[in-house]
UniProtKB/TrEMBL annotation:
Coiled coil: none
Species: Skermanella aerolata
Protein name from the UniProt record: Stringent starvation protein B
InterPro entries for this protein: SspB (IPR007481), SspB-like_sf (IPR036760)
Entry-linked Gene3D superfamilies: SspB-like
Region span, Disordered: 139-160
A Pfam family recorded for this sequence: SspB
Length: 168
């Protein structure tokens, strides 16, 4: 199966995770206006998810949290968010990377996003990873064709055909 060079599906997912990031950032800075509230489902077994062990035991694969009335210390950065919620009258801090989120919804405005898991088994997940993969494949292909010969003195340029780099 040929490798896809432009993984638009992954790029769109990354962009939509940015929508979640910005919604959480605004909620952290200004609170939730009107009837807005968020349902966030995330994979609890992701290695960068930090939740208490008893919650991981109760929710070994996925967990849904609701940010509506009682949430505290919502902090958002480029890779993750952290929030303190109450479980059985105990405040617990959760830290969840955006890559672990599987669903984001704001039912007050009938808005929802569903995400595919990001990870090595799915191929590259960021633009940088995609570019690195394409660069490596191009280098391997060029090595198979042999290194180009240096330009002869007196020549001002050389026409290169791109057909050699296209997959057949």
């Amino acid at each position: 199966m040929p490798t896809e060079y432009l993984r638009y599906d992954k790029m769109v997912e990354n962009a939509l995770r940015g929508v979640v990031r910005e919604a959480l950032r605004q909620a952290g800075e200004r609170g939730l206006p009107g009837n807005h509230h968020f349902y966030l489902t995330f994979r609890t077994h992701d290695p960068d998810v930090h939740i208490p062990d008893y919650l991981r035991g109760q929710y070994p694969s996925e967990m849904t949290i609701v940010l509506q009335y009682q949430f505290y210390g919502l902090e958002v950065d480029e890779e993750k968010f952290g929030v303190t919620l109450s479980f059985n009258n105990m405040h617990e801090r959760l830290v969840v990377p955006f890559a672990a989120i599987t669903t984001f919804a704001d039912p007050s405005v009938n808005f929802a996003l569903q995400f595919q898991p990001l990870g090595a088994q799915d191929g590259p997940s960021s633009v940088e990873e995609i570019e690195a993969e394409v660069t490596e494949e191009a280098a391997q292909h060029a090595a198979k064709l042999g290194s180009p010969k240096p330009a002869e003195e007196g020549k001002t340029g050389q026409v290169v055909t791109l057909d050699a780099f296209r997959k057949k």
